[in-house]
Amino acid sequence: MTTFMCRITAIIVFCFLVYNPSNLFCSTNVGDNGLEEILKKVEEANAQLKTMEADIKYSRVISLLDSEEISDGKLKYKKPKKINLRFMPPRNEISVVDGSYIWIYHPEERQVEKYKMNSDTDTPQGVDIFDIEYNVEKIKENYDVTLLDDISTAEGTLFHLELIPKESFDSDYSRVLLWIKEGLWLPVQFQLFESDGEIVNTIELSNIHINPEIPDNTFVLDLPDDVEIIEPFK
User: Fold this and answer.
1) Which residues of 3-38 are buried (b: 16+ CB within 10 A; e: fewer)?
2) Which residue has the higher pLDDT, 45 or 25?
3) Which domain holds residue 137?
């Protein structure tokens, strides 16, 4: 369960990374002027973004095992670093990031896993990636970002970006792809590749609403009294 949640949060934080594009080191094969204009639009959208709600679809494909895991849910995000992520059955999981802790609630097991963010102690795989959100110099040092192409769809143009970790950086992911929607100027789909592409994690966002009113108590779990709270690394 923990590994699943950490994969999801890691991918979403990569989406946050694109919300700060002007600070990234970028190369492109479609023309610098086009890239700069796109990044300017994304920067403007990021400046206006305070909250977001969306439907979310997550899939994990393992090619060697010929397996695919698919989960549907609801995402709520509020700056800075607050997330409410609810997956429907059969996943049936509620995960909340409140800015200080990550809470992973399994209703059927009557258990909650609790992890401190930005802790010097051990954390599950993927949780420490939250450090990327505000460490721009680290991103510039560790990743090359490329604008690959633009794709015309019935719903508008998507701009396709690629993030590749540099050889000096030890990353869980060998490649990251993002699709930014023209007009919205935020990512609507992104992929993380593990094990040299043998495992592919895909997130798709739909029914996106920008800056709806989201109260702070959305990012506080309202738990029954009989729920057990587990802190694995405490």
Assistant:
1) ebbbbbbbbbbbbbbbbbbeebebebeeeeeebeeb
2) 45
3) 2-230
